[in-house]
């Protein structure tokens, strides 16, 4: 999950080593700052300490900051922009492109708490990884309490990624519900479906695909019990068949 960085010079004392590391990796540092800002804004939306009106503005700021981070990361992965179909196809394979699209889908929509968690948690994971590199550049044993927190976060990375994938999946019916409740646009479910197919086909992050499989196994196990009503079993089997037909082919 960590972004690839170059090892900058680490001479000049503890503080000097960290500063030199940050200056030697300007693009990664810019993404680190934008991710920390995303975490800050997301937290103030989830916990509206400054009031509900301000929380809505923090929702938009978090998504805009995430869009900036995703654009920078996409530029890092594909530095030579080309206005061609081949370049677009290559860009759509990148997770950063997926979450650039994700931010654009929800930035002007009605604030949905579920939609902010993937942004918050991805930013937190990436920021934690880079923070540890900054601490290593400063000193191998600096700020042990913070290092301990970062290690605990990293130890739970797999569970966090599964939680993110679960959010990505259940946001699909949420966008449909928002449409019928008058809080979403007509295009939002269709664009989000495209985002979900990109996440399902992701080369770097298989958790969305894994969660779909695990959910299918759980549902099939429950509906095959004798106590399950026949109509509910048929409804679930039809839904599973429909969703399976919508799933993209993964190489």
Write a structural description.
By secondary structure, the protein is an all-alpha fold. The chain has 2 domains: 16-204, no CATH class; 206-250. Helix content is 75%, strand content 0%. The chain contains 11 helices and no strands. α6 packs across α7, α6 (113-138) packs antiparallel against α8 (157-180) and α8 (157-180) packs across α10 (207-223). Mean pLDDT is 87; it is low at 4-12. Keywords: Membrane, Transmembrane, Transmembrane helix. It is a multi-pass membrane protein. It is found in: Membrane. InterPro entries: PER33/POM33_regulator, TMEM33/Pom33.
What's the structural domain tally? 2
Query: Low-confidence segments, ≥5 residues, pLDDT <50?
Result: 4-12
The biggest beta sheet reads: none
Topology, number of strands: 0
| Total of helices | 11
How widely separated are the two ends?
21 Å
Judged by helices, strands and strand pairing, the structural class is: mainly alpha
Q: Rg, please?
A: 21 Å
Classify the beta-strand content into a percent band. under 5%
- What's the overall geometry? globular
Order of helices and strands: HHHHHHHHHHH
Mean pLDDT: 87
Helix content: over 70%
């Amino acid at each position: 999950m960590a972004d690839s960085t170059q090892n900058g010079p680490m001479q000049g004392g503890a503080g000097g080593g960290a500063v030199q590391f940050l200056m030697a990796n300007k693009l990664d540092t810019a993404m680190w700052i934008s991710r920390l800002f995303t975490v800050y804004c997301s937290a103030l939306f989830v916990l509206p300490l400054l009031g509900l009106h301000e929380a809505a503005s923090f929702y938009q700021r978090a998504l805009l900051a995430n869009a900036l981070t995703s654009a920078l990361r996409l530029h890092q992965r594909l530095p030579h922009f080309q206005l061609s179909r081949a370049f677009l196809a290559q860009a759509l394979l990148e997770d950063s492109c997926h979450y650039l699209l994700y931010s654009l889908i929800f930035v002007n929509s009605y604030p949905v708490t579920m939609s902010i968690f993937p942004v918050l948690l991805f930013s937190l994971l990436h920021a934690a990884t880079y923070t540890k590199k900054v601490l290593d550049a400063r000193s191998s044993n600096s700020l042990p309490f913070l290092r301990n927190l970062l290690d605990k976060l990293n130890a739970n990375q797999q569970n966090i990624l599964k939680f993110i994938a679960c959010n990505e999946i259940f946001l699909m019916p949420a966008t449909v519900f928002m449409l019928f409740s008058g809080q979403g646009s007509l295009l939002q479910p269709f664009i989000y479906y495209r985002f979900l197919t990109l996440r399902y086909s992701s080369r770097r992050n298989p958790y969305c695909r894994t969660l779909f499989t695990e959910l299918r196994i759980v549902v099939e196990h429950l509906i095959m019990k004798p106590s399950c009503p026949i109509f509910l079993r048929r409804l679930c089997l039809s839904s599973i068949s429909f969703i399976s037909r919508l799933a993209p082919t993964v190489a």
